[in-house]
Amino acid sequence: MKKTLISLSAMAALGLAGTAHAQSSVTLYGLIDAGITYTNNQGGHSNVQEMSGAVNGSRWGLRGAEDLGGGLKAVFTLENGFNIGTGKLGQGSREFGRQAFVGLTSSQYGALTLGRQYDSVVDYLGPLALTGTGYGGTQAAHPFDNDNLDNSFRVSNSVKYQSVKYGGLKFGGLYGFSNDAGGFATNRAYSFGVSYNWNSLNVAAGYLQLNNSGTSLNSSGAVSDDATFTAKTQRTWGVGANYGFGAATVGLLVTQTHLSSLTGIGSSASGTSSGISLASGSARFNNYELNGRYQLTPALSISGAYTYTDSRIAGVSPKWNQFTLQTDYALSKRTDVYLEGVYQHVSDTGNSSIHAVINGLSTSDTNQQVAVTVGLRHRF
Question: Which residues form the Porin domain (predicted)?
């Protein structure tokens, strides 16, 4: 009887809440990506493995909004990442590691949000790179995802502003606090970006800076255990554009990442730095990407990219050449199957023990690596 009364009281409370906030909405959404990947070389051995998120990381989330009147809304997003093969949490076992923020959005002035969020390079340049879309995704990232276009890390303790569109122009910025009383700049982050679209033309630019990310100096700062690099500073900038004509879209993207006092390549990168000497203390990656896609039929598409990365790391100047090709067939609006192949070759590595490493996979023990994935995605 007591349990029944409690249940009835809870139902009544929910009913009253629904009446009081008739203009509120909460949406459950998600994406599941599972596939089988063949790799010709992982640590000297070929491998066939089941993968979660070969293209898009599996996730589920809650998105909500409350209309406050006058074009103003309160909004929130809580998004969890997980491995569909094992059921384990992603992003360092965080409950909502992909995104977690709350804020206000105005139809006139834009949105101001606080929490764990994407940086401006991801927001503005990501959609112009094959890795930032469902047409290439995880394995299409630049070496080590050095420019974070594949969202290897998010920025915690961040406040973010994104404008509305002004005749096709949109801009925004983010600041991630260190939360350290004794070191305001120890593990902080900031970024800004801008985009412009006119008819079928889209152009964008972005900048990101991290201070002491991945180090042991402040583990509760902006970017910690999921940092791609352990370095005193990381500066990433980029520009890109794409143009659509008919069923085709072509794009060009250029990014650069510069690292000072580099001591490690983190676990969020595809491989591991355990065999790479980083005594030089600095590194630079210049990435040049040409990509395109073509909608053969309403259900069938083909896409691809060529990326050239010129770098300076571990006292040598490695040069990566990577080709990505994907074909995708939509079984419905929510479900599709895909076949994706990636080839990577690295040269001029000297005695640094740098080998080919496709994002999301273990390192090859040679200068080349090939991966082929057949997968299924479902959105809800």
Answer: 10-348
Instruction: Name the pLDDT band for 131 (thresholds 50, 70, 90).
Output: very high
- pLDDT for 315 beyond 90: no
Range of the domain at 373: 26-379
pLDDT value at 128 more than 80: yes
Residue 360 phi, psi dihedral angles, 5° rounding = 90, -5
Which CATH number is 222's domain given? 2.40.160.10
What span, in angstroms and rounded, lies between the C-alpha atoms of 147 and 124?
A: 13
Q: How far apart are CA 36 and CA 52, in angstroms?
A: 9
Q: For residue 369, which of 60, 70, 111, 38 has the smallest C-alpha distance?
A: 38
| Total count of domains within the chain | 1
The answer to whether residue 11 is domain-embedded is no
Q: Judge whether 179 lies within some domain.
A: yes
Residue 12 lies in a domain: no
- The residues, ordered by sequence, that sit 6+ positions from 123 with a Cβ below 8 Å of its Cβ are 162, 172, 193, 206
Q: Is residue 20 assigned to a domain?
A: no
Residues 31, 60: Cα–Cα separation, whole Å: 6
Q: Side chain identity at 356, as an amino acid letter?
A: A
Mean pLDDT, the chain, integer: 91
Could you give the CA distance from residue 113 to residue 123 in angstroms, rounded to a whole number?
14
Name the pLDDT band for 20 (thresholds 50, 70, 90): very low
- DSSP assignment of 107-163 equals TTTEEEEEEEE--HHHHHTGGGSGGGSTTT-GGGSPGGGTT-TT-S--EEEEEEEEP
Helix, strand and coil content of the chain, in percent to the nearest 5, comes to 10, 55, 40
pLDDT digits (tens, 9 = 90+) for 248-264: 999 999 999 999 999 88
134 within 8 A of 118, measured Cβ to Cβ: no
